[in-house]
Amino acid sequence: MPSSVLILATNGFEQSELEGPKAALEAAGNRTTVASPETGSIKGWKDKDWGTPVPVDASLDDVKAADFDALLLPGGQMNPDILRMNPAAIQLVKDFAAAGKPIAAICHAPWLLIEAGLVAGKTVTGWPSVRTDLTNAGGNVVDQEVAVDGNLITSRKPDDIPAFAKALIDMLG
Predict the structure, then answer these.
(1) Helix, strand or coil for residue 52?
(2) Which residues form the catalytic set?
């Protein structure tokens, strides 16, 4: 039976970090749903400018961890910085964690894990500028393409997407 993966993002997500894992998950037979506080579509960031809009499938207010098997958090600098200030987004991350479901965060997205209080005692990675925040939150920070600790999967950058997506797909079984 295919797994159902929720992708939480808003404007300013790193284009490749949403589209790459989404395509890999779907190619492996899983279903994906993009949820956002925004409606209609959200714009990614690609290189030094806005990327291609991605359709929003569901409102952040209408999704529940109970309805999905895993949570994917794409990075980009703007996207997780905006979402970590949204109480509903942080509660959703906490709900996935409380249910023991996989949470995959890449690049700057581990900021959401920090905000949700999930990093202490965990082996994690992220974009270089986020690593001090991860350390300050009690994480054991490593510099490798993917770190898996319990239900948390973290990666550093777009080059890590193949390993990042594979780790999530493997965890979904």
Answers:
(1) strand
(2) 107-108
